[in-house]
Amino acid sequence: MNKRKKSLSSIQIILLGFFGLVLLGSFVLSLPISSQNGQPVPYIDALFTATTSVCVTGLVTVPTAFAWSVFGQAVILVLIQIGGLGVVTVMAAFMIFLKKKMGMDDRILISDSFNLSSMDGIAVFVKKVLALTFTIEGIGALLYMTVFIPEFGLTGIWYGIFHSVSAFCNAGIDLVGTGSFCPYVLNPVVNFTTMFLIISGGLGFVVWFDIFHNLRHKNRRGLRFLSLHSKIVLSVTAVLLIGGGVVYFLLECNNPLTIGNYSFGEKAMVSTFQSVTTRTAGFATVPQENLTGGSAFFSLLLMFIGGSPAGTAGGVKTVTVFVLLVTTFSVIGSKRTVDVFHRQIALELIKKALAVFLFSFLVVLGSTFLLLVVQGGNLLDILYETVSATATVGLTRNYTGSLNLWGKIIIILTMYFGRVGPISLAFAFSTNKSKENTVVNPKEDIIVG
Hints:
mainly alpha
């Protein structure tokens, strides 16, 4: 990496990396070669598509299957892959491929991007990330092909690859049509393959490597030997996925517009898929506008939480919400420390979790207010759109297609801040720390609550 980059902070590199990739992608997508009919797509839609791809969101203003040529779809796929893995990871991969030696700044940046405790073995770690990504995406592509090749012929190969990358990266962009995966609502291969890919990408690479490490040591098998981070991620993920499926099943079982007419097994599968996809994936097997009010509100909660850190998912993350919850209960219980799994959570992590949560919440509030001013519409539909954009989910209640110019700009900014904002805040607590202030101000009590 060049000398000029060394003067940039980790936060600036992340922000500029995503921003530059969005601009480059929008330029290429605005070319006639990227359009299916040979006519340039309006730049605002090219910019929107590039943003939703890089930020792995999934909201689209033009149908991906009909608006873009194979070249345009390939550009979108590349943007999704880079956006899902992260600019830093892809940058490191190129350095490894070119056999370029990583400097100390490079190692610090990569280490911080995955919250690693050590800078040793950075190159090996990045290689493992790439190997795991392409292995899981390859498995997913082959499974998808068993459905898409019989239906679309050789084009099904491309469909399998595209949807596997999109699902693993939690992007939710599809080539099926305007109804996402609704045509495959009862197809078990599409449902379970998509859920497998979404969960795999959403768990986070650090958790996967922790699991593999423990499985290689026969005397260390079991949840108790995993790191605290892995325990929290796996526990919260299991509760949200299973609990979410049960909630959707109960709220939608008598709704004829969603799963009311299906068998018990079919209802369970569709409900579980809805629980999984709201964790920032964005694929839909039932029209989101047909959900009951309770299910829609519950979806807002799951979307806002999102997946887990150091993975491809968005949202405020499972660990963030968990830390805030246990901190709240510790305060209620008048405990001096915040403890979980016989470990104490540091105050710095609590402040970091609070900052990420509040930042995302403010982005939702701000974008919702602006959309009400410039676009208008049903408040629930707008909230669904803004939470989906902030948490990089991609689910919509048919609101995206109605966006005017200012509405598109607002959602573009929301997706960008929703993707890079929490990452930047995470870096702010772990990189380029300023020296401790030697002046300690006196304490004074204030009234809260």
